[in-house]
Structures are given as structure tokens and as C-alpha cells.
Amino acid sequence: MKPIIERGPEGGYAVGKIDWLLNLARRHSVWYLLFGTACCAIELMQTGGPRSDADRFGMVFRSTPRQADVLVLAGTITYKMASRIRLLYDQMAEPKYVIAMGSCANTGGLFQDSYSVVNGGDLFLPVDVYIPGCPPRPESLIEGLMLIQHKMEKEPWLKKAWGKLPPKKDPKLPKDGDL
Ligand code: SF4
Questions:
Q1: Spatial distance between the Cα atoms of 56 and 4, rounded to a whole number of angstroms
Q2: Hey, whose CA ends up nearest to atom 2 of ligand 1?
């Protein structure tokens, strides 16, 4: 069923599948965690500023993992910080997403051969989107966040939840204890 959105002088309405309505709300309120480990974090901060204005897409930063949907791995990840990042990820509520921003978060970048650097965030977290660059520009991060929005758009939450319910019992079949 194709969703219908009508706007009028006294308000509007939307008619669609519940999954679509839920995802419409979710995709327009992508809150990312304000956290970074190196220079890419400066670009992350700039993305929330007036020039890039991520707010226009409903993307705002949160300073607590408990209210964030997206963890952006912004910067070089040392082994020392990896356990802290994992802790932040575990504190985020489901459903949650991860973006690896920049060469360091993707592969270890310039510091790949260093004894102290993790060669990519996907070695300890499920990364959804990889953004290349050193550092990537705010526009690239916005594009990465928009890819997360597209992913959210297609998620069948109700279908998944109903899939977990026990099958309906046929009243004509014998019940436990009848035999
Ligand atoms: S990718 Fe480049 S800018 Fe980003 S953290 Fe690594 S060295 Fe810094």
C-alpha cells in the first residue's frame, strides 16, 4: 500500500502501514552520539554547526548514549579507547547503528602498523556505514547519516515482532489434555 500524505490549511494527515509510520518518525529523528577519539571528531562537531545544519534532517547530537541512535566512530581508535567505545555502544538502546567515519575508523588509516591502534571499528562493533576520507567533510557524514535513514525506512518492525508470536491455535484441533 502506497502511503498517503495530505496537507491542508488546518493541518494534515498521513495514512500508511504502521511500519511505515513508525519508520517515518524514526528516520526524521536520527540522534547521533557526540563522541570522538581524534581529528575526525572536529568534522563531526562541525556537522552539528550552522554551516552544515544537520538539524534540518532531524539529526541532532546527544551527549548521552542512552538517548542516541547512532554511534559515529570519529577518529583513530586505540586499544585503550576501544573498550570505552564498546561500553558506550552497549549503553545505547536498540535499535542502534554505527558509522565508521574516516580512514582511521575504517582501517586504522595512517596508524595501521602502530602497536596501539585498532585496524578498524568493525573488529569490535557491527559497522553499518563506512565513510572514506582523512578527514571526511561534514557533507560526507551527512550522506552517511542519510544512508542510515534509508536503512531505517525499510525496517519491518511489526512483521518482525509478529514473527515471534506463537502461531494461532486452530479451535477444531484437540487441545492439550483432550487425548
Ligand atoms: S582519518 Fe585522518 S582526520 Fe580522521 S582521525 Fe584519522 S588521521 Fe585524523
A1: 23
A2: 134
CA distances from 121 to 3, 50, 56, 77, 96 (A): 37, 29, 28, 7, 15
Kindly give the residue spans of alpha helices, DSSP state H, lying in 37-137. Answer: 40-47, 79-91, 102-107
Tell me the pTM: 0.84
Separation CA 118–CA 112 (nearest Å): 8
For the domain spanning 31-151, the CATH number is 3.40.50.12280
Residue 12 pLDDT more than 90? no
Strands 4-8 and 11-15: antiparallel
Residue with cell 582501517: 107
Q: List ligand 1's pocket residues with C-beta within 6 A.
A: 38-40, 75-76, 102-104, 109-110, 134-135
pLDDT tens digits along 139-154: 999 999 999 999 998 8
